[in-house]
Task: structure prediction
Amino acid sequence: MISSVLPTYSRAPLSFLRGEGSWLIEESGARYLDMGAGIAVNSLGHANPDLVAALSEQAGALWHTSNLYRIPAQERLANMLVAGTFADTVFFTNSGTEACELAVKMARKHFHDAGQPERVEIIAFEGSFHGRSAAGIAAAGSEKMTKGFGPLLPGFRHLPFGDHDALHAAIDDKTAAILIEPVQGEGGIRPVPDQCLKGLRDLCDEHGILLILDEVQCGMGRTGRLFAHEWAGVAPDIMMVAKGIGGGFPLGAVLATEAAASGMGPGTHGSTYGGNPLACAVGCRVMQIVSDPDFLAEVRRKAGLLRQSMEGLVAGHPDVFETVRGSGLMLGLKCRVPAADVVAAGYDAHVLTVPGGDNVLRLLPPLNIPDADLAEAAERLDRAASAVSADNPGAAAQAS
Result:
């Protein structure tokens, strides 16, 4: 008999009732160190007092009016994002999935209105993840996400990750845009090298097509810059944002240049809840905190501590781990044993991590995680790895 909650998730046997900073408290009272932050969502930890105050104040005044009217908090947040990024304009959504839908529509509408309606194809890459909507799964293209859901939305070409020759060969007079994550998240924490992002920008400029960046997981300070593409010194035409921008409250956005968004006039897109007063009140406070240069410098410092401890973890457990990869507080441990085994051992050690593609264990802690909690995480992950080693005596021989 089917459960009352549609069984689309394989959930861990844990039920959390409260959160405090980097910690989650289970209904039994047990405390778990959260190194996943709701999959890079709780950017400022759990029950952050600044965010609680922003939400509570707005909740006592006004929740929802719809986008039929001006929303002052939405305008404030849009102005902050425009002032701090490449963008000229912003549309607010409730999630990264919805941001993907608009990014695809915006790119195609841009060329339609420019007199090039044949330009509808979007180039995407293997290992990518852009949400689970019709456009999102079609953009990613993996069998895991698309099997059984055909016919898929047409107009996407999928290329191997890092294959420059295939990329150059794929661009033709039907190409509208290149869509890529500066750091693949679900795909296993695979960063795009800075020189490759620069090459993508040059390639788009050469062919007169749009560059769409998906910074849903790697944006909002996660890599130590406000957005990951800033490390390469380039700017996209369209960018998808979500997860960390709401600090745990559902919020997403599409940022764009005026030129890229030129086709999106009244009636071309909409959202009932997107950019509502509650979400934007929280988003404004998140943006104020995360965009501060001193805060981002602290993220980079903490990232150095985490990277150093994880390199030590890999060196201490070569039978369990192969390498560390990623950027900032978005690290991946490439595993020699099933990553799911390490996640499960982490539950016993009361540390929460997130599995990813390519047999990678993802570490996505709150950006303001205290140094002491980073040290505690390393100790607990060491215990988890030791437990996995004990359960996989043959792994050590394979590692050597």
